[in-house]
Each structure stands twice: as C-alpha cells, then as structure tokens.
C-alpha cells in the first residue's frame, strides 16, 4: 500500500514514523502541507501515485490538498480533531450545500462527541483511534510535586483554552504552581501572578518530563477533541481536570471547573500523594501503542481494498 498523510508534525508525523517501523513493507509518507512549501510541492508529486490520501488537516489548512485530491479523484479520508468541526459548522450555516463537497470521501474522528456533531451536520464518520502512550517507563509511586499543575495555552487562543479559569484557580490556590506551555506570556505585557510560570513551546521530551514531575493536568476548553495531552498525563498518573470525562465519553458542566479542581486535590490527598494508578491502567488498556497501530492499519487496508 502507498499512503500519504498531511497534518501537524507533532501528531501525524509521529504516527507515520511509527507506521513505517511497524509495517515497513508498505509506503507511508507524511507531508507538512500546513507549514512547508517544499512539502506542498512534494505532496503534489506523490499524490497521483497514492492508494490513499489521509488528510489529518481536515480541509482547512489553505494548502489546497483536499481540492487537488478531489480533482484527481483519489481515494481520500479526512480526520476531524476538534476546532475543525466548529469551522465546518460555521461553513454549513452559511452554505448548506457545502456538505455535498465532503461526501465522496471517508470521515473519521477519535472523539465520540465529535462524531455526533458530524452526524448532525450530515456527515457519517467512523471511530478511529491513533493517539497512544507508552506506559513502560518506570516512575515513582508518589508525585514529584503534588502541587504542580500543567496547562496547554497556545499563543493567541488564551481565553479559549481557559486562561480566565487558570487565573482564578491560581488566586484560590496560591501555594500551587501553574505551569503553562505553548505560551510565553507576552499577552500579559509583563503582569502575571508569582505562581504562574510560562514555558513557551517545548520539545516533546521536555514537555513529558514536566508532566512526569506534576500532579494535575488542567484543560478547560468549551470544545475539544480526544486530547493527546490528557492521555499522556493519565499515562503518568496525573489527575485530569478537563471539560470532558474520557471514561464516560461525555462533556462536563463548563461552569464547574473550581469544583472539579477541588475534587482532584482531594483525591490526591486521600491517596497520600500517590499517583493515580487507575489512570495509568486505563491508558495501558485503551491507548496501547501496538493495539492502536494494528487497528489503524486494518482500517487503512479496508479503505484501500474495499474501494
């Protein structure tokens, strides 16, 4: 099989690298059509020879890859992550016929709530998991720092990713450290609280080391996908304060962030500062790398051979 992907390197690039190692007899290629002009050119050269084009950028990266695939009538699959579904909703509100533009390809998401949203827009999407975490690393039974919180807060999207809630919690829990990644804090113009630390963009290993040394992941957004950062944090036994319940696969009341944060602290205290090994076990069962890759390969194979 010859399969080409586009998407963000952190997610899709890692996935393709893993597929290359596990299934070396097939041809897996990743192109960063979102950020690299050279990759856009390479993508255009390889697309005519592909058995399947899997767009992990949805259809909104402005590179024209999805349009080009439609012109060539290539076997195409689209993966939906979160905010791209919101963009689709806005598009359909303005032009209901736009859905027809998307119907001649396969659609997937890993979040059940996103699949429901897509179905409501007239797109039938299947469930496909691709995010995994290796729990084989040896970690201590107790938290390195039981009062350290990690927050993903990308530049330019601070309010969407919960800055106001973080600020509120940092005032309520002044003895806790709130470590913010993917943001330098420049939007504050030098004014911040002493227990809030900005790290900017981190290399993956540095970010995972920060997670490992923390006790809570706080991710409070009004709309989200099946978050890899949540899976990674659970893999290290952190408490998760997220707008979704990953076990029940449902959204939580948005206004209850303070209560869920309080409950997380209470659970840590009741365990005598031990890691949440129930979370680690859940990741081992539900986000095992080998199982995820095998199911992903099976789906790809079916898309190609059933065409």
Described by strand count, sense and barrel closure, the largest sheet is: 6 strands, parallel
Quaternary organization: single chain
Strand order of the largest sheet: 2-1-3-4-5-6
- Domain count, please report it: 2
Alpha-beta classification: alpha/beta
Shape: globular
Distance separating the two termini: 13 Å
CATH level 3 topology of the largest domain: Rossmann fold
Order of helices and strands: EHEHEHEHHEHEEHEEHEHEEEHHH
Strand content: 15-25%
For the record, what is the CATH homologous superfamily label of the largest domain? Glycogen Phosphorylase B
Q: Regarding CATH, which class of the largest domain?
A: Alpha Beta
What proportion of the residues is helical, as a percent range?
40-55%
Describe this structure in words.
With 307 residues, the protein is an alpha/beta fold. The chain has two domains: 2-132 and 289-305, Rossmann fold (3-Layer(aba) Sandwich); 148-286, 3-Layer(aba) Sandwich (Rossmann fold), CATH 3.40.50. The chain is built from twelve helices and 13 strands. The protein has helices spanning 9-22, 37-46, 65-71, 83-94, 98-102, 112-120, 163-172, 204-212, 228-235, 257-270, 277-286, 289-305, and strands at 2-6, 27-31, 52-55, 76-80, 106-109, 126-127, 148-152, 177-181, 196-198, 216-219, 239-242, 244-245, 250-251. The strands form three sheets. Strands 2-1-3-4-5-6 form a six-stranded parallel β-sheet, with helices on both faces. A five-stranded parallel β-sheet has the order 9-8-7-10-11, sandwiched between helices. Helix 9 (228-235) packs across helix 11 (277-286). It starts with a strand and ends with a helix. The model has no long low-confidence stretch (mean pLDDT 92).
